[in-house]
Amino acid sequence: MTQPTDSAVMDPHAIAKLQSLEQARNYVEEWIGKVAEMVRTAPPPPTNNLEAAAYLVWRNRLMITHGQAIGALCALQVFGIIPVPMFQELKLKIIGTVLRKSADVQLGIDPWQ
User: Fold this and answer.
1) What whole-number distance in Å separates Cα of residue 59 and Cα of residue 29?
2) Are 82 and 27 within 8 A, CB to CB?
3) Cα(22)–Cα(33) distance, integer angstroms
4) pTM to 2 decimals?
5) Residue among 92, 75, 86 at smallest CA distance from 18
6) Which of 28, 34, 72, 82 has the fewest CB atoms lying closer than 10 Å?
């Protein structure tokens, strides 16, 4: 089984190694797990300039990881490895991993406790 790497959105050799829908789903699920873990360990919003730098570094890394997850998903769909319904399901799952913490903040729940 191929593993997501930090240096590539989708390793071209990984596409050739994916032999079933289940392997393709697992590949994207691993990326979703990385995004979910980053969201789970998010630092609280900055209250001063010293904390702002750490928060911005985290946010930028989250956006890169999120983009890599979407890129891997798009590559699998474009090359015909996964069907459109699975693409839509997994894309919504990726979006949901980020929205959960945003929803907690909007509802007044402190997600950093």
Assistant:
1) 21
2) no
3) 16
4) 0.75
5) 75
6) 34
pLDDT tens per residue across span 14-67 = 777 888 889 989 988 998 999 988 888 888 777 777 778 888 888 899 899 889
Domains and CATH numbers, the chain: 12-105 (1.10.132)
Which residues neighbour 21 within 8 Å (Cβ) at sequence distance 6 or greater? Answer: 81, 82, 83, 86
* DSSP classification of residue 109: -
What six digits make up the tokens of 44? 């609280």
Spatial separation of the C-alpha atoms in residues 22 and 105, rounded to whole Å: 34
Q: 């911005």: which residue's tokens?
A: 56
- From CA 7, how far away is CA 31, in angstroms rounded? 13
Which tokens sit at 81? 């490895």
